Task: inverse folding
């Protein structure tokens, strides 16, 4: 959803009187533009009107109208709401000009739209499949593509009640497995498509000195002690220096968006826990915000305070975990990680007592939170926030920050300048460590963050050391917010009305975003009035932050790649969804 | 700042943690390990020293809200028969996100009308995501989330689809694992009964 | 132990020694030393991996059970804990890693996703349980299983190892182990053991669509 201020709207409409048509579908907002004029409008938005941050590129399949739509959300780094731009093409021949030459951060998102929906982008530098593999048959998120274990169009399935005779779904498939092949396919005649396109796309440096050396292509991952999950990188090495690097993801693609379209709105809540599985409360927060915008409801006061409490505890937990992992990558095998995990275990005890599970909390509901916090748990949170966590944070600062090895290996390594960070749509600590003070809690406040006093820390060098220092600063600010929340939290109900399992969501679209610990986490939800969403897309911060990985690694040594990846702090559940 | 001071600070911190483990053991004495009091001490926010909970001799107690696999509650009748509270309304099957609950409602063989008792009730544990929606939205307090996490097995084809027999547990067990919730629900139920009795008295 | 049991093939005892060799104590010592020093392979796929790291950390230490180090290389590991959802893009690598592990080797399927697909079972890139490709010894349900549940799973595996006996373990038989054929990524995942079934079914499908097209044309 967007509410442009009247001033900018008038200016932009004056410049493009016929090309920008407002979107008049009920519940929708933004402007529709023809594909041919898309690049021109985007360039004007970036150069003349200051919308230099392209946050999200989403494809939507409108099968009844035979159209494919691509939705762009532009923001200004000085703050403010979104400018939503859409373009519509015919479904059978979906070709849209690519915005990657203007906004390099759109690269992976356009590849994802090609992979999952079949929208072809012209002038894209490297249009290959990203989440599935080359050779995969079909475009999965299209509405007429049925998966092999397809049971019914929308949940709840009629086969579970009242005549729910149990079966394992693989028994209904002729191959007893989750596979389907095109008719007439012969597996023995088929030759596998190797990664030729991938290796051909890597740059090689032209060396003209007299030493005849070869440039080696090395694969890091997917099983590697330090890649934070199943993530693969292909690097071209000249000796020990990296010439070019390409990330390959999709090893944990769990079809979150397709399953999301079959679920009802409430049933999607536990699935959002599994996106960024280290911080599940903030994923729940983003999704609850997006759907509450569509429904037009607001949670009561106590629920808002509890939400901020959980979100900031999650931020603390995630940052201390990420610092522990960074030191693990640097080689301090497991000791700082154990200290970080001790604090994390104490916070997870709080989450378990409040929501029922350590990691997959499933705590937020539309219009409030699921359960209230008991008094002994409040007491525990008070002790943690006022006494233990600041003390332990100072201890981590004491023994890590001035360590010579950390400084020597992290200063000046993996530098990302401010202009490149904005152009590559980086967000979260990666963006703020490069000098751009953009934080969604201040730029476009949601929930009750405008009532609290806190600073947005910014660092200016953009290297790994700055990202580590920035995470320490953010932890301190989180503790500051937590102390204010615990001081001000009111009594009251935690949900307006009784809990509903049949949620009525009016038709429309909405984009709800939160400042997650890893960056800007956005949920784009399109509803057509039915109990299931029509389109459900997650703007994953680490997926888009990975576009800057190649740039940060060029010129560094191969041993630094692992630390640079650790400083971006990726979580594969979010990257691959 | 002398060179090497950063590394020395790190070594000093680790050394301090090491010494603290011994000092805390001496200070708390015999009751630090293998007692419930010791476990509480090692879970509180002011724990210092050794942090390990030694499973399986010491088990960390799970909080009341903990959710693992669901189970069906039955009330024990006077002659020891099991009165399952479930009426096979199907709400849990409808609200389950991965659709892992299968219910067959009993039908009266003569009239063909449905009877509110489940004939078959299956949960596929290989699909269940422990979200707790079935327990949250059941209107009859019939399905609740269990605390039992010791269910590792060797064969999943035979053992991981739990049937009605395996899922039913008595209400006394439920009161034991979730005392506050049980007390609140019993109070609500008693109040409803009192209201119904008052209404019946008013309109004979 | 009876004589016929001792004289099973693959395990020959010379006649003069048959009265003196007692297998039970040897079994016990063999199993005891193996079960108390399993080294897991550092192999985390998804959310369950975070609980596995939590189990390795200081609160629920699993080096108390002998799993002192987690080895990233499969050649040095005994136990593969498949923790997390197994996707079709990743399964060729998992099968390769399993083939590279030297025997005795064990596999634990941790979590609902590795046991049977989990909540993501209906997805198009999710393999419904890692036991479709590699043999699994212990299944631990839960999403995610708490560290204590994982430790209970380890104890269950150790109980299984205790019951193994020298004459029936697969690595002391006459023939070496067959490596599991690695699946291939085509239009969809292809298991080389099922090529005949695939050809048969797709042939039938092609015939049916050709028949339907002919009928459609005949109607026109």
Result:
């Amino acid at each position: 959803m967007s509410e442009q201020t009247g001033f900018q709207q008038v200016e932009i409409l004056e410049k493009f009187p016929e090309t920008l048509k407002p979107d008049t579908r009920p519940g929708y907002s933004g402007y529709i533009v023809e594909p041919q004029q898309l690049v021109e409008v985007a360039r004007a938005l970036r150069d003349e009107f200051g919308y230099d941050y392209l946050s999200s590129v989403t494809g939507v399949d409108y099968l009844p109208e035979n159209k494919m739509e691509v939705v762009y959300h532009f923001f200004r780094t000085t703050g403010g709401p979104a400018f939503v731009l859409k373009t519509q093409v015919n479904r059978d021949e979906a070709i849209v000009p690519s915005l990657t030459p203007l906004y390099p951060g759109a690269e992976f998102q356009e590849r994802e739209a090609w992979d999952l929906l079949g929208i072809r982008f012209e002038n894209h530098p490297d249009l290959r499949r990203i989440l599935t593999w080359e050779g995969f048959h079909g475009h999965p998120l299209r509405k007429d593509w049925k998966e092999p274990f397809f049971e019914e169009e929308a949940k709840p399935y009629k086969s579970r009640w009242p005549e729910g005779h149990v079966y394992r779904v693989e028994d209904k498939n002729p191959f007893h497995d989750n596979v389907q092949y095109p008719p007439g396919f012969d597996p023995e005649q088929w030759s596998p498509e190797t990664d030729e396109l991938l290796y051909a796309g890597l740059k090689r440096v032209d060396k003209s000195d007299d030493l005849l050396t070869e440039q080696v292509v090395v694969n890091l991952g997917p099983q590697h002690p330090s890649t934070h999950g199943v993530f693969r990188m292909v690097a071209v090495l000249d000796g020990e220096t990296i010439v070019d690097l390409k990330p390959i993801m999709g090893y944990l693609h769990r079809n979150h968006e397709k399953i999301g379209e079959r679920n009802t709105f409430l049933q999607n809540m536990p699935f959002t826990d599994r996106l960024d599985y280290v911080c599940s409360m903030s994923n729940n927060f983003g999704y609850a915000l997006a759907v509450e915008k569509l429904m037009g409801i607001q949670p009561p006061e106590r629920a808002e305070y509890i939400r901020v409490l959980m979100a900031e505890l999650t931020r603390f937990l995630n940052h201390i975990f990420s610092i522990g992992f960074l030191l693990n990558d640097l080689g301090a095998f497991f000791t700082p990680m154990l200290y970080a995990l001790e604090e994390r275990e104490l916070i997870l005890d709080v989450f378990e007592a409040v929501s029922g599970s350590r990691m997959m909390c499933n705590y937020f509901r539309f219009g409030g939170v699921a359960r209230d916090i008991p008094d002994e748990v409040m007491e525990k949170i008070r002790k943690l926030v006022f006494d233990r966590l600041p003390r332990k944070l100072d201890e981590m600062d004491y023994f890590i920050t001035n360590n010579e090895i950390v400084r020597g290996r992290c200063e000046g390594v993996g530098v990302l300048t401010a202009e490149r960070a904005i152009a590559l749509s980086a967000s979260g600590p990666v963006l703020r460590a490069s000098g751009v003070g953009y934080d969604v809690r201040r730029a476009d406040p949601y929930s009750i963050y405008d009532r609290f006093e806190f600073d947005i820390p910014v660092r200016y060098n953009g290297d790994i050391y700055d990202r580590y220092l920035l995470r320490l600063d953010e932890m301190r600010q989180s503790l500051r917010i937590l102390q204010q929340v615990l001081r001000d939290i009111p009594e009251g109900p935690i949900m307006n009305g009784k809990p509903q399992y049949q949620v009525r969501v009016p038709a429309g679209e909405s984009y709800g975003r939160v400042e997650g610990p890893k960056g800007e986490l956005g949920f784009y939800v399109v509803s057509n009035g039915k109990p299931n969403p029509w389109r459900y897309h997650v703007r994953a911060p680490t997926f888009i932050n990975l576009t800057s990985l190649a740039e940060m690694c060029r010129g560094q040594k191969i041993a630094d790649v692992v630390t640079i990846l650790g400083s971006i702090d990726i979580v594969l559940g979010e990257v691959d969804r | 700042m002398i060179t090497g001071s950063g590394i020395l600070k790190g070594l000093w911190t680790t050394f301090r943690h090491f010494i603290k483990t011994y000092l805390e053991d001496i200070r708390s004495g015999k009751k630090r390990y293998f007692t419930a009091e010791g476990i509480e001490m090692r879970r509180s926010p002011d724990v210092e020293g050794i942090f390990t909970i030694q499973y399986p001799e010491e088990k960390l107690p799970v909080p009341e809200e903990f959710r693992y696999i669901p189970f069906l509650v039955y009330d024990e009748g006077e002659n020891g028969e099991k009165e399952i509270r479930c009426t096979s309304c199907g709400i849990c099957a409808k609200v389950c996100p991965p659709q892992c609950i299968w219910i067959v409602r009993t039908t009266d063989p003569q009239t063909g009308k449905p009877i509110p008792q489940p004939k078959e009730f299956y949960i596929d544990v290989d699909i269940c995501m422990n979200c707790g929606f079935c327990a949250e939205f059941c209107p009859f307090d019939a399905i609740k989330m269990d605390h039992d996490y010791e269910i590792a097995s060797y064969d999943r084809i035979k053992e991981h689809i739990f049937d009605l027999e395996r899922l039913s547990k008595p209400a006394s067990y439920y009161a034991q694992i979730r005392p506050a919730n049980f007390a609140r629900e019993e109070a609500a139920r008693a109040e409803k009964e009192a209201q119904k009795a008052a209404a019946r008295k008013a309109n004979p | 132990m009876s004589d016929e049991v001792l004289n099973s093939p693959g395990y020959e005892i010379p006649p003069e020694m048959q009265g003196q060799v007692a297998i039970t104590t040897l079994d016990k010592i063999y199993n005891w030393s193996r079960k108390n020093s399993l080294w897991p392979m550092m192999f985390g796929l998804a959310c369950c991996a975070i609980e596995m790291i939590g189990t390795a950390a200081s609160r629920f230490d699993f080096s108390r059970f002998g799993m002192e180090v987690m080895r990233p290389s499969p050649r040095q590991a005994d136990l593969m804990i498949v923790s997390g959802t197994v996707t079709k893009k990743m399964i060729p690598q998992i099968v390769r890693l399993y083939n590279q592990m030297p025997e005795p080797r064990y596999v634990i399927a941790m979590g609902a996703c590795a046991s049977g697909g989990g909540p993501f079972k209906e997805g198009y890139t999710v393999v419904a349980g890692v036991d479709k490709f590699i043999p699994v010894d212990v299944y631990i349900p839960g999403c995610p299983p708490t560290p204590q549940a994982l430790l209970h799973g380890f104890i269950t595996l150790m109980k299984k190892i205790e019951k193994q006996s020298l004459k029936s373990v697969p690595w002391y038989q006459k023939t070496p182990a067959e490596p599991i054929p690695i699946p291939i990524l085509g239009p969809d995942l292809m298991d080389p053991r099922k090529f005949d079934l695939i050809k048969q079914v797709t042939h039938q499908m092609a015939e049916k669509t050709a028949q339907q097209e002919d009928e459609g044309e005949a109607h026109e």
